[in-house]
Amino acid sequence: MAAHNQNGLPRRKFLDYFLGGGLATVLAAMLAPVGAYLWPARKRGGAQDVIDAGPTRDWPVATAKNFQVGGHPFSVIRVSESDFKAYSLACPHLGCIVQWDSPTRTFKCPCHAGVFSQDGKVVSGPPPGPLLAYEVMVVGDNVKVKVPPV
Ligand code: FES
Q1: Is the pTM of this model over 0.85?
Q2: Quick check: CB of 126 below 6 Å from ligand 1?
Q3: Cα(60) to centroid of ligand 1, in Å?
Q4: Which residues form the domain of 7?
Q5: Of ligand 1's atoms, which has the minimum distance to the CA of residue 91?
Q6: How confident is the model at residue 16 (pLDDT cuts 50, 70, 90)?
Q7: What pLDDT does residue 44 have?
């Protein structure tokens, strides 16, 4: 006659369930990080694609605010009272970080003197193309930027 625990479950079956459940838990804990690596939140359509750049008030024309999402720096500039633009700060030449120069309304690259207009277009220097532009929306009094998946 098989030994039973208090629930009437044979001891052997109880141990099988107990050890099987423990093994499944250990496997799930080991595979969860692999799954998160293979299917990161952004590729699953995460809700982090739009960031709030702040209110339009107290944001003078020709000034910029810098942000960083997923290790990618970008800048939002107020071109006029009603127009905002956002660009990746990675120079399309060799990837140095460009900087907004408010007096000249240009982005300047410190590495090889590349210069970009406030529209992101190359003004001078070796960059082969414009800065990567991000979509900007003004919702109410807030500036929102749609950041592409990283
Ligand atoms: S990396 Fe910007 S001009 Fe060369």
Answers
A1: no
A2: yes
A3: 28
A4: 1-38
A5: 2
A6: confident
A7: 46
pLDDT tens, residue by residue, 71-84: 899 999 999 999 99
Cα–ligand 1 centroid distance for 92 (angstroms): 7
CA of 84 to the centre of ligand 1 (A): 24
Q: pLDDT tens digits, residue range 83-102?
A: 999 999 999 999 999 999 99
- Other CB atoms within 10 Å distance of the CB of residue 106: 17
Residue 122 CA, ligand 1 centroid: distance in Å = 11
Tokens representing residue 138 in the block: 């003004």
Domains in the chain, number: 2
Residues 55 and 88 in one domain: yes
